[in-house]
Sequence to fold (183 residues):
Amino acid sequence: GDGAFTFVSIALLRHEKRLDLLIKAFNKLSKHIPNVVLTIIGDGPEKNKLKLLSHKLQINNRVNFIGYQRKTAVADILRDHDALVLSSDVETFGVVLVEAMSAGLPVIATKCGGPESIVLPETGILVESNNKNKLYTAMKYMIEKYDDYDPKKIREIALKTYGDKSYASNIKSAITSIISAKD
Fold:
C-alpha cells in the first residue's frame, strides 16, 4: 500500500520458465517506474543464478525470492499483489493463471501453449515468448491501464470457466488433447 505496483510470478525456477527474461524486463521497467516490486514464488535449480542476476542489475532490493509456498499461503500472497506474470517458454495449461484470476488479479502471459486459451482481453495480456521487450511493454501497459481491469469481472470469468466442476473438466480436456497429440 505505499503506492508501489507489485507483480508476482509463481514458477519452478527452471530455465524453460524464463525468469531471467522476466527479471531483465523488470529491470527495464524499474528504470522508468521506480516504485515497482516483483515477488518470485518457487524454488528450483536456477534460484542462485536468478538471485545473482538481480544483484548484478542492482534490483535485488525490489525482487523478492520467497521460495516454495503452500497452496493456502499462495492465495493470500496473490491477494497482496496487483498482477501476475508468467514468462514461460513452454506451458501446457497454466494453472497459476487461473489461480491469479480467481483472486481477481489480471495476468500477463507468454504465448507458450497453455495461456492462449486462458487469457482474455478482460483478464490480461498475451505476449510473444522469449521477448524481453514485449514483456516489458506489457508490464508497463498493465501499470498504466490497471484501472481498466475489474477484479470482480476477472474472478467471475475465472470461476465461470474454471470453477469447481468445469475447472476439472477443462484440465481433463487439456490433458486428453495433449495425450492424443502425442499418439
